[in-house]
Amino acid sequence: MEEKTQYQDSKHYKKEVGFWGNVMLNVGAMIGSGILLLPFVTSAYAGPYIWISWLIAGFLVLPVILVYSKLIEMYPVTGGMSRYPYYSHGGFTSFLASVNSIFYYSLIIVPIEAQATVRYLNLFWPVFLTSSAAPTAIGYLTEVIIVIIIALIIYFGIKWVSGTNFALTLIKLLLVVMFGLIMISFFWSPTNFTDPKIAYLPKGIPGIFAAAGMSIFAYIGFRRTAIYAGEAKDIKALNRTEIVAWAIVIVIYVFMTIALIGAINWDKLAPIAQKQGINLYPGNWEGIGNLSGPFAAMALGFGLIWLYYLFLLDGVISPNGVSIVELGGVPRLFYAAAKTKYMPKALMKVDKKTGTPVWGLVVSTVIGIAFLFLIPLYSQSVDVLIAGSNILFATGPAAVAGVLARKKIKAPLYLWVIGPIAMISSSLIFYWSGFPYTLYGVIALFILIPMFYYYVRKGEARADWKNGLWYIVYIIIMVVISYIGDKTYSGLGILSFPYDFLVIIIVAIIFYYWAMVSRLDVDPEEAADVEE
Predict the structure, then answer these.
(1) What are the residues whose beta carbons fall under 8 Å from the beta carbon of 136, sequence distance 6 or more?
(2) CATH superfamily ID and name for 19-517
(3) Mind listing the pLDDT tens digit for each residue in 125-169?
């Protein structure tokens, strides 16, 4: 018999997000600056075969999505990404997942999207960036204003977050699909897929997987339901929202990559690329990957001035739709961390009028603005995100294994099939981030461990060091594999393709079962909410 969860959220959270609102929270987070830039960036690795990379990335994420959908079904709580590892493995594992999801994932996305907006605005009015792509004073001011406006929208509650995101996501989906249809209908040619001088793999077969690893950046917004679950109208339908969002997004991404590659006209893009200091010629996929505002550049190359301006507009809409979802999620992740007792209790305070974790929003906004100045370049911010976020995936499969095994829930498909596959996918995704990003991500994760130790010494947080040992060893081994792995992922080449993949599969399975046996014996307690 399945054990009923007793975990509760603040009574001030508003149950105002419907099924499609939750679907769009996920879609809105997955289709941001990634759709405007990444298809071209990944072409430097996979050439015209990037559609295969995006398909691989999408299906690699699917088992992880299924795992989180199961966890949402069992625990429909606010900030679930941080709390699931707490329910399965206790304090230490949960802390690592929390700081990862807050500081090196959700928070860094806000400045990334603000920087992406400024990058697009600079094409229209070149006063926002210097020649080295760093923001000017006007650029910095614009980025700060963007973050503050988004914070104000979030303050007014989940209805504003969901409604604004729904509208912005719908607009950007229509724009992207319209562009793809125009490219296929009027400008598409099979030459880029058939001409041997153009249709080649710049980095060989490993390049397809490297491009897939980069494409993951566009898919990782799928866990938004796991953050906003406590504010859903119908919790019974929650576990389907991420899967529906995934289906929509993978179709959009594969369709767009095929449409874009087929519509590349090297001769018409060359003059535009030249103005950006790029010598573009047929088959120069690296040059395509370096184009600034590639969608707008393609529209301009074909003389579609009206579409050029529409995509400059979309360059503002798409990133900020993501930012609303992400910055809105950070206070809820802070709330979850406080519930699990290793962050200040004040972060659990939820405004009774708006249903927003108010102090969490203040802290999130301040840190988000600080990141704009600490990491000024868009490319640097993406590097930090890649370095810090992908190691988090493994805690999902581990959590579902631990909870299902402890509660003796009859779900053999999840426990023995989907769970292990999700662990393999998570490990490959981390590996494809490439060295030294894998190392930087782990260092960044460990830097904040003294914060956790402080709360353990105070007697507030539970340690559960033994239950979290598997995760530390797993992380270290994965970094070592990354270091000696294939040169395509910036490793030493000692463990080359396909043997690197084989080793990772074996390691992932071993650690999945170690995580299962390292589970807690009983449900852990959470802190009581700070209610007025």
Answers:
(1) 127, 128, 129, 130
(2) Amino acid/polyamine transporter I (1.20.1740.10)
(3) 888 888 777 889 998 999 899 989 999 999 999 999 999 999 988
Retrieve residue 249's tokens: 């997004």
Q: How many residues does the chain have?
A: 532
Question: Omega into 376 within 30° of 0, i.e. cis?
Answer: no
Handedness of CA 171, 177, 183, 186 (dihedral sign): negative
Q: Which two tokens stand for residue 476?
A: 């270290």
3-state secondary structure 355-379: CCEHHHHHHHHHHHHHHHHHCCCHH
**CB-facing half-sphere around the CA of 291: CA atoms within 13 A:** 32
* Domain ranges across the chain: 19-517
Alpha-carbon gap, residue 88 to 464, rounded angstroms: 11
What is the C-alpha separation between 99 and 223, in angstroms, rounded?
16
Tell me how far the alpha carbon of residue 514 is from its chain's centroid: 26
Question: CA-based angle 265:270:273, to the nearest 5?
Answer: 120
Q: Which residue do the tokens 């209790």 mark?
A: 345
Query: Each residue of 191-223: pLDDT tens digit?
Result: 989 988 898 888 888 889 888 877 876 787 777
Q: Which residue do the tokens 């508003």 mark?
A: 14
The C-alpha angle 193, 196, 199, rounded to 5 degrees, equals 35
pTM, 2 dp: 0.86
Percent composition of the chain: helix, strand, coil (DSSP 3-state, to 5): 75, 0, 25
**Number of Cα atoms under 13 Å in the Cβ half of residue 450:** 3
Contact 497, 486 (CB under 8 A): yes
Helix, coil or strand: residue 315: helix
DSSP strands (E only) in 151-230: none
